[in-house]
Amino acid sequence: EVERERYRQARKKKEEREARKKEARQLEMLFGPKDPLDHDDPLLPYRQYYEQAQHSVQALIHIRREWDMYLVPEGTIGATTVPTGWVVPSEPSSEGWAGRLKENLE
Question: Which pTM was predicted?
Answer without folding.
Answer: 0.41
